[in-house]
Each structure stands twice: as structure tokens, then as C-alpha cells.
Design a protein that fits this description.
- The structure is a single chain.
- The chain is an alpha/beta fold.
- The protein has 20 helices and 25 strands.
- The strands form eight sheets. A five-stranded parallel β-sheet has the order 8-3-2-12-19, sandwiched between helices. Strands 1-11-10-9 form a four-stranded mixed β-sheet.
- A hairpin with a 4-residue loop joins strand 10 and strand 11.
- Helix 13 packs across helix 14.
- The longest helix has 26 residues.
- It binds flavin-adenine dinucleotide (FAD).
- Flavin-adenine dinucleotide (FAD) binds next to helix 1, strand 4, strand 9 and helix 15.
């Protein structure tokens, strides 16, 4: 089929507004909000302009949008080195320990700020009883900063009344931006409902970012943002793989469905180096509702077993040790998935979490009032984060305090801040003992593209940051971006790309739809038309390819060199066909671009799995042709880089260096 070009014959050209600033933040999620807050502190005295762009509304955007019940990274009295050890162990022995160590020393400061800004944090009273955040506040228990004891749901997690967590953090970021606006005299510096499609590169300096381009999802307008430095904090990727819930349940996934891989796609096309992009996260959650299990496992001490009541982790400990030692002690998230999958494949499912027994056990030591309170908290855990889980249980006559509830491993997601570590290779802080010199190139959290910083889910090789860590990482990047501006004073962005061409490319789906939709008499938004493909149908194709060839649920997460070769061939064709995406309105234009970005994230993931010839993450994915961990050849980072001009990928191994020794056995 002939390649279409958009000459705006069928749709109106959008207005193009240019916005100039010093610091541009893409994404107002946890990390972007942290970056805005911190950057403004240092930028205001220097009269530097800070702009934040988000495709949604910062108050309720990103992975934390609906709220959380626990902050998963709080060091407190723990040894920060144990945190590094835990992260390394859960990620099968490979993590950038300089980044993790660096985070451990600052993350609590973000948590202290959250509390100062109004987030209620649970506390232990003098007798060691737990009080929820509001009760603790009403009882005048003081703040964590003043020495009050948090309630831990696990070694690193603390409980919060978190339904308005993102609103609190977002509000502060917005306030900071307002202060920056007042200090610098900018007319506007917060652009919500603007979807960024690409980073802009500098025409004079190779490998230097100069800004970004995006379109309004509400009006016929394109924004060209020009900046001295850019932060990419636009989150991870969901719905790259076919979800378990299809059709009527299509909107349900563990990862909130609006994170569509933009962070990966924009960085890849800018030529930023990736690391460990083969890694993925497959959370084991309550079936179909994806309700959180963390509090049940860690706080209520619920046990998960196969249908015969056997603890599958204990049952398969020996064989897992034989195949995957030393990474089985302690058994990390993916290995616990692996043990459950052995049972499921043997027909010993469903896997059940014994929520009923956990509650009965707690009843042995608690009075009725305390138990009722705990039960209410357990419900709140779902109402905070995954309200659909409560609905689903009700629909299936499941009362989790009376009967066990089914668990299921989800479809894979790509992210770098939860229990996964797919993302970009960034500069470390440079002062961590033993870290190789080449791991730091002057600006902490800057990617291999000059001026382009990364934070949160898009940073690779440093998982387990979670919400607090992502915020703290955004703050690190925000501060370093001010440094960058001061060191590069007088820089004037000269955009390499033709803005006219980019605008035409951006709006091509609208033009294509307007040109061809009368080809059929079928109603608006029809999925089938020989001249174009709707975003919905393209997404189905992407998810099918990934599911069947790149190790999704339908193959029990198994793939191989031959399957990947075919998957990559099909992705190439899909990429070609993506030039025929059509949108009937601005909302569908957003859907087109989300899917286009997903394809980039998907391709990087498939290429990385293909490069790493071992099964490093059993329980997340399996290479059928290389079924075991091969430390001798693959205990290393796997980095890659895409070259937009030549349309080629380069892959290489980067040596892993251990910075924190295992504790000396007693
Ligand atoms: C289901 C789930 C449960 C979790 N539970 C917990 C928990 O209990 N405790 C905990 O501490 N952490 C938890 N986390 C982790 C935490 O949510 C993440 O670590 C954190 O949100 C990552 O921050 P981020 O800034 O990288 O991404 P996000 O917070 O997801 O923000 C990304 C931002 O980028 C914007 N964006 C995306 N694409 C574009 C584009 N093209 N143009 C403009 N803007 C764009 C989005 O709108 C969003 O605002 C959970 C995560 C998930 C997914």
C-alpha cells in the first residue's frame, strides 16, 4: 500500500504554540512531581523557568492515581545496605548498586515531606499497637521526622491512609510551579492534557536534547517545548501483552491502563541507551480484580497454597535451589511466581490465598473491636487502590474473611520502579565507593543523551524504588537539571527536526480518518476499513504478537530465539501498518500515539530477551532454548541503543560490579 503523507487536505491544521523554558519535565507522576518540587527550589533564585507537561491531570495521574495503602520504600531504622542487598536479591543478582545505594540515602526525606504535606501515616503507640494515620494524628503522636514509629507492613513498607496520596503530592508540585511562574514571569508553566509524542534534538550539537513536542487532547493545538534540559518521567508500559481480561474486562489490568510506554518510546527514538529491557514484572494478584496482595501477605500473614493446601514455595524449594541457586535464598518475587506456575501447570490450581485463615488467626489474639478495625483496613486496602476487586468479590459471592481467594499471575508489564528494572542506563552519583568511573558522567540520573534526564519507571537496573523512591529520584534529577542549566548558560535550543513535518506526522491519523471514513457506510468508529487501522485493532494485533511470540500468558511466559525472530518480523510489519492508524477525534489520536509508543517499548523488550541467552527471570519469562540461569556468561547488564537515522539496534554486555558485600555469616 502506498505510504500516505498528511498535507492537511481533510483536517484543519492545528495552531502551533512555542513554549521556551530552561527545565522541561515530561510527566507529572510521582517522579515528575518530585522533580518539579525540587527543581523549583533551586531554579527560582536563579530565575530559571520550569515547565511540566502531562497527558492527564497531575492531581490524579500516573500509577498512583487511585491511591495506595502503603509506601513501599522507607528505610527508617533499617540498614541502607540491606536495602541494596534486598533489591539485588529480588532482581536475580543484577542491579546498579550505586543507584540503589544513592536512593537509600535520600528516600526517607521524601516520606517526611509527604507527612508534612498532610499524608496520614500509621503509627505504633507506646504499647506497640497500630493506629491508622488519622487516629495517630488525632492522638498527637507526632511525625516520623520527630521520631514517631511507623507501622510496617513489611521490612521496607509503611502503612498510610493513602486514598489522596497522589492529590497531596501533585498539589505541592503544582504549587511549586506556581511559585516558579511568579518568580520568572512566565504566562503558563503547567500543561495538562497534552500528550508528548517525541523528544526534539539539537541541530548543532549531536546527541543533545532540545525539547519535546506534543498535542492537546482537548483543543486543536500543538505545543513545541524548547528547553535547555528535559526530564523523561512518563512512566512504564501496560497493555503491551494481551491481558488476561479481554472483551468486557479489557480495561482491567494490574498496571493502570493509561501508562503506555511513552517514556520508553521517546527515549529510544532519541538514542538513549537502554539496560535490562528484557526484565518485566508479572505480579501475582487476586484473580481478575488485580487487588493488592502485599498487605495480606506481609501484614495479615496470609498464606498462599495450591488447591491441595500445599505451600508451593516450600514444596519446590529443592528443585528451585538446584536450578537457580544462589538466587533462591531468599526466594524473590519471580521465583515465588515460578513455584506457583509449576503447580498450575501440573493442574494443582487454583492457587489460593487463605485470607479466611489469616483473619481467624488474628481473631485468636485480638478483641472484637480491634479485629473489626483491622477488617475495615483490609477492605480499605482494596477501596484505595483497586475498587473493582471489591465489586468482583461481591459478584462472585466471595467474602475474603470467610473463604480463601484465588490468585493468578498477570500478563507482563514493563517498568523500572516496582519489582522490575527495565529502563534507561543513567549516570550514577559518582561518589559511591567502588562504583566504576564509567557509571557516572557528571549529572546524576542523566541518560546517555546530553541534557536528557530520566526518573522513576523509565530508569533501568534500579527497581524497588516504588512511589517514595520515584519521588526521591525525581528530586535528584530535578536538582541536577538546575546544575546542568547553570553549567550550560547561554544555550539556545535549535531544533533539528522540522516542526511542520512533526505536526503533519502527529495529525496523520486524523487526516487519514477524514479522508477515508466515507469509504464505508458503517457507523463512525468502525474498526474495519481497508484504508486504515483503528487504534483498538492495532492494539489487539500488538498484544497478540507479544503474547504468542514474546512469552505472554498463553505460552506460560515462554519464548525462544525462533519465536522471537518471528515476533520481531511481525512487529516490523505492525510498525509499517502503524503509519495507517486513523483517529476520528483527538481522544482517538491519543489512543493512536499510545499504541505507537507501546510498539517501541515492545520491540525493545523482545530484542533484549533475544539478546540475553539464558533464563534470568524464571516466573517472569522463560527462554525455552536457554532454560537456566547462566552466570558465567550472563551475570552482566545488557545494554542497547537504537539509531533513528540508520534504523538499527546495537546490543552489548556491560560488566556487573558488586558494591555491597553479602553480610558475613554469623
Ligand atoms: C498497580 C501498582 C501498585 C503500586 N503500589 C504501590 C504501593 O503500594 N506502594 C508504593 O510505594 N508504590 C507502589 N507502586 C509504585 C509507584 O506507583 C510507582 O513507583 C511510581 O508511580 C512511578 O513513578 P513515575 O513517575 O515513574 O510514573 P507515574 O507515577 O506512573 O507517572 C507517569 C506520568 O507520566 C504521564 N505521561 C505518560 N505518558 C505521557 C506522555 N506521552 N505525555 C505526557 N505525559 C505522559 C502520566 O500521565 C503520569 O502522570 C505501584 C505501582 C503500580 C503500577
Amino acid at each position: 500500500m502506498e505510504k500516505e503523507t498528511n498535507s492537511f487536505q481533510f483536517v484543519e491544521k492545528p495552531a502551533v504554540e512555542e513554549v521556551s523554558c530552561d527545565i522541561l519535565i515530561l510527566g507529572g507522576g510521582m517522579s515528575g512531581a518530585g522533580a518539579a518540587f525540587e527543581a523549583v527550589r533551586w531554579a527560582n533564585p536563579k530565575n530559571l523557568k520550569v515547565v511540566l507537561v502531562d497527558k492527564a491531570a497531575v492531581e490524579r495521574s500516573g500509577a498512583v492515581a487511585q491511591g495506595l495503602s502503603a509506601i513501599n520504600t522507607y528505610i527508617g531504622d533499617n540498614d541502607p545496605m540491606d536495602y541494596v542487598r534486598m533489591v539485588r536479591s529480588d532482581l536475580m543478582g543484577i542491579t546498579r548498586e550505586d543507584l540503589t545505594w544513592d536512593l537509600a540515602r535520600v528516600v526517607d526525606d521524601s516520606v517526611d515531606l509527604f507527612e508534612e504535606w498532610g499524608l496520614p501515616i500509621w503509627k505504633k503507640d507506646a504499647e506497640g499497637h497500630s493506629m491508622d494515620g488519622i487516629a495517630a494524628r488525632n492522638a498527637g503522636m507526632g511525625s516520623l521526622k520527630d521520631g514517631a514509629m511507623p507501622v510496617r507492613s513489611g521490612k521496607w513498607q509503611i502503612m498510610i491512609n493513602g486514598e489522596s496520596y497522589k492529590a497531596i503530592v501533585g498539589e505541592v508540585a503544582k504549587k511549586a510551579l506556581e511559585l516558579n511562574k511568579a518568580a520568572t514571569g512566565m504566562a503558563e508553566n503547567l500543561y495538562e492534557r497534552v500528550f508528548c509524542t517525541r523528544l526534539l534534538m539539537d541541530s548543532n550539537e549531536p546527541n543533545r536534547v532540545a525539547g519535546a513536542i506534543g498535542f492537546s487532547t482537548r483543543e486543536n493545538k500543538v505545543y513545541v517545548f524548547k528547553a535547555n534540559t528535559v526530564l523523561n518521567g512518563s512512566g512504564g508500559a501496560v497493555n503491551v501483552f494481551r491481558p488476561r481480561s479481554v472483551g468486557e474486562g479489557m480495561g482491567r489490568a494490574w498496571f493502570p491502563v493509561w501508562n503506555s510506554g511513552s517514556g520508553y518510546a521517546m527515549g529510544i527514538q532519541a538514542g538513549a541507551e537502554l539496560t535490562l529491557m528484557e526484565n518485566r514484572f508479572v505480579p501475582m494478584r487476586f484473580k481478575d480484580g488485580y487487588g493488592p496482595v502485599g498487605a495480606w501477605f506481609l501484614f495479615f500473614k496470609a498464606q498462599a497454597t495450591n488447591a491441595l493446601g500445599e505451600d508451593y514455595c516450600v514444596k519446590h524449594a529443592d528443585i528451585i535451589h538446584e536450578q537457580f541457586a544462589p538466587y533462591d535464598n531468599p526466594m524473590g518475587t519471580n521465583l515465588r511466581n515460578h513455584a506457583a506456575m509449576i503447580e498450575m501447570k501440573a493442574g494443582n490450581g487454583p492457587i489460593m490465598m487463605h485470607t479466611d485463615k489469616a483473619m481467624a488467626k488474628l481473631a485468636e489474639t485480638m478483641d472484637e473491636k480491634a479485629l473489626k478495625h483491622l477488617e475495615a483496613e483490609a477492605w480499605e486496602d482494596f477501596l484505595d487502590m483497586t475498587i473493582a476487586q471489591a465489586g468482583l468479590w461481591a459478584a462472585n459471592d466471595v467474602e475474603p474473611d470467610k473463604v480463601p481467594s484465588e490468585l493468578m499471575p498477570s500478563e507482563p508489564y514493563l517498568l523500572g520502579s516496582h519489582a522490575g528494572c527495565a529502563g534507561f542506563w543513567v549516570s550514577g552519583p559518582g561518589d559511591i565507593p567502588g562504583a566504576p568511573e564509567e557509571w557516572s558522567w557528571g549529572y546524576n540520573r542523566m541518560s546517555t543523551v546530553n541534557g536528557l534526564f530520566m526518573s522513576g519507571d523509565v530508569v533501568g537496573a534500579s527497581g524497588h524504588k516504588f512511589s517514595s523512591g520515584s519521588h526521591a529520584e525525581g528530586r535528584i534529577a530535578g536538582k541536577m537539571m538546575v546544575s546542568w542549566c547553570l553549567d550550560h548558560e547561554g544555550y539556545t535550543p535549535a531544533v533539528k527536526e522540522s516542526v511542520d513535518d512533526l505536526v503533519a506526522e502527529m495529525y496523520a491519523p486524523l487526516e487519514l480518518y477524514a479522508k477515508y471514513n466515507s469509504y464505508t457506510t458503517a457507523p463512525k468508529n468502525i474498526d474495519v476499513n481497508p484504508n486504515y487501522i483503528s487504534p483498538r485493532m492495532l492494539q489487539f494485533r500488538l498484544m497478540k504478537i507479544m503474547d504468542e511470540y514474546v512469552g505472554g500468558c498463553s505460552t506460560w511466559y515462554t519464548t525462544s530465539g525462533t519465536l522471537l525472530a518471528e515476533g520481531l518480523r511481525k512487529l516490523d510489519i505492525l510498525k509499517e501498518d502503524a503509519a495507517r492508524l486513523a483517529a476520528s477525534d483527538l481522544h482517538e489520536l491519543l489512543r493512536c500515539w499510545e499504541n505507537y509508543h507501546r510498539i517501541w517499548a515492545a520491540e525493545a523488550h523482545a530484542r533484549h530477551i533475544n539478546f540475553r541467552e539464558e533464563t534470568r527471570y524464571p516466573g517472569y519469562y522463560y527462554r525455552g532454548d536457554f532454560p537456566v540461569v547462566d552466570d558465567e556468561n550472563w551475570k552482566c547488564f545488557t545494554n542497547s541503543k537504537y539509531n533513528l537515522e540508520s534504523n538499527t539496534w546495537e546490543h552489548k554486555k556491560v560488566p556487573y560490579v558488586e558494591l555491597v558485600a553479602a553480610p558475613t555469616p554469623a
